[in-house]
Batch of 2 targets.
Target 1
Amino acid sequence: MTAMGRVWAAITGLIVVCGIVIQLVVTANGHEGFYPDNPERVFNVFAYFTIQSNLLLGGTTLMLAAQPDRPPSRLFETLRLNGVLCIAVTGIVYHAVLAGTDELHGWASVTNFLLHTAAPVAGVLGWLVFGPRGLTNWRIVGWSIVYPLLWLAFTLIRGAFAGFYPYPFVDVDQHGYGRVLLNCLFVAVLFLALAAGATTLDRRLHRKTTVER
């Protein structure tokens, strides 16, 4: 990874950190939502796929900024791909389905922009332009599917007991399990399509970089 790539990775990580910190402060000082009191309100922030995908992206980009020439690691390669794919899904689903469902003002609007727009754009562009290349293959894609499945299982099981679902399209009380699973299937197809595209593109860019060297 080039020096510019490290700077971009650091900026991406900073966007995520700022977005999550502001979100936590806004949530802690608010009164609307499923949980009216703290600390439940603040803890519940981490149940959102948006927050978790930002954490994956921010954590891996900051690790790359600190140590760009990392030794091969299946765990890091999986987390890196998860960060890029999940933040892409976050941005696409938010702007295609969820944008406009809430009327946000002030700092809530700022954190919404950082987590749903700035971070996805910075994360995907950073991966496309700076890489690093050669970290993705079909085995890594297989491992990357584990996290979204775990998130869905956690969300549905927790929702059955607590009655809280973070997004309307996974709200079993409103839509029933059949419709929710169908909605999740559409998101899964999007995730797998992005994963296949990322893997194919990474291989081509890796070959091109190797030949140029």
Target 2
Amino acid sequence: MRETMNEILSQAGMSSSTNKPDPVKCDFCGNDKPQTQIEHPFKKEMRWVICACPCEIERLEQFKREQEVKAKRIRINKVLKLSSAMDDIRTMTFDNYKVRKGAEDAHKEIRKAIDHFADRGKTGVFIFGETGNGKSHLTAAGGNELISKGYAVIYITEKDLFSRLQATKNFKNEETFQEIMGACLDADLLIWDDFMSSQRLTNEEKDWIFQIINGRERANKPIWATSNITPEEFESESIAYKLDDKGRTWWRIIGNMNCVFNRATNYRKSKAMARALGISVEDYEAGKRG
């Protein structure tokens, strides 16, 4: 047994005596490899050990970094497949996003969430306000910027999420319940568009919502949610019990998100009305109707 161990120690680079061995050249850089002394495990004496060259260590660390980047890229691409309407989402950037009157606070909160993403943990964002006022574009633009920084982001509408989870009951379905739920929990960021848009939630849907909210809270990962609820609904007592009869899901949401009311008006309406009146959107929103 001891002979076997001595052979292993020798193969690991430990000298067979207390004498310092001759220098060993690195195969990569040609410099002498560093040597140090450590105590022999069986004998109370110091022995010389030839260490890895710093350039070898750097090569190994670089290989490890490349593998981690590759693994993360695979993970990101896998997660992205779950996102709703990816072609549309990719076009939503800050380059084509206009900060309209009333959307300043929402824009500032998303920018802050992006710039400090690594330090915010489970702190997410809840943006609510009138339909068509740019909430979806804003969160998608933020998600796209985080994707460019190497984060795994899912953007999904509530309706799409529920329909895809429901479809997993069909054994021929390409996606499994575990794959969808796992991706929602594993992504660095989950952007939940049109949250609470369902007029009436089934008990099963309520359970799905709780699983995702609770799971991401436990994993210390954020959610960015958009919703068309009104300020009156947001402040009402009844909304807390729409998701469950004890209000636990709602208060988890409120406790883990910075809530922002987007006061901007419906941009889709402004575009349609401006087109009908033959004026610019800016003039329409400024009250210049000709």
